[in-house]
Amino acid sequence: MSLTVLFFSAFISSTLFPGGSEAVLAYLASDAQHPLFLLVLVATAGNTLGAMTSWGLGRLLAIRYPFRQLEKASQQQAMERLQKYGSAFLLLSWLPLIGDPLCVAAGWLRIHWLPSLVFIALGKILRYIVVVYLVGIAGAGV
User: Fold this and answer.
1) Of 90, 19, 8, nearest in space to 42 by CA
2) How many CB atoms are closer than 10 A to CB 71?
3) Residues 6 or more apart from 42 whose CB is under 8 A from it?
4) Residue 96: how many CA atoms within 13 Å on its side-chain side?
5) Whole-structure pTM value
6) Residue 103 to residue 24: CA distance in whole angstroms
7) CA-CA distance, 125 to 69, in Å (whole number)?
8) Does position 12 have pLDDT exceeding 90, yes or no?
9) Which of 2, 88, 128, 106 is nearest to 51 (CA)?
């Protein structure tokens, strides 16, 4: 496996398609052929780029389906919460099941791209650091 596989796995995992970038990262970290910081950097770059792709899709959706057209009260509440907390809420974009739609929603609500990028990247890098740390603990037999 290579850094390219890690990048594309991370990218796909961060779109609305399922993926397993953590498993690829864990394998490469345990293989110890690449520096850990490089693995974390590549995984974060791919995952962040995928999340920003989702953000861009949300931005395109806003043209066709404006925010005011949401029918369900629960949908309205979720979007209002995201608007209230803004881009900082995107720190949660690493979470399974809700992270990808959260990025789409941020684009849909036209949350500025730069703070979105920063908070998405921060959440993703912290997750990958934890994965590498846990692989290190498991490898040490702790």
Assistant:
1) 8
2) 6
3) 3, 6, 7, 10
4) 5
5) 0.87
6) 23
7) 35
8) yes
9) 106
Q: What residue segments make up the domains of the chain, in order of their start?
A: 3-140
Backbone angles phi, psi at 73, to 5 degrees: -60, -35
Report d(CA 58, CA 89) in Å as an integer.
16
Residues 48 and 83 sit within 8 Å (Cβ to Cβ) = no
The closest of 99, 106, 114, 92 to 57, measured between CA atoms, is 106
> pLDDT digit string (tens) for 51-88?
999 999 999 998 888 766 666 666 667 677 777 888 88
User: Is-contact 37 139, C-beta < 8 A?
Assistant: no
State the Cα–Cα distance between residues 79 and 9, nearest whole angstrom: 29
Cα 36 → chain centroid: 19
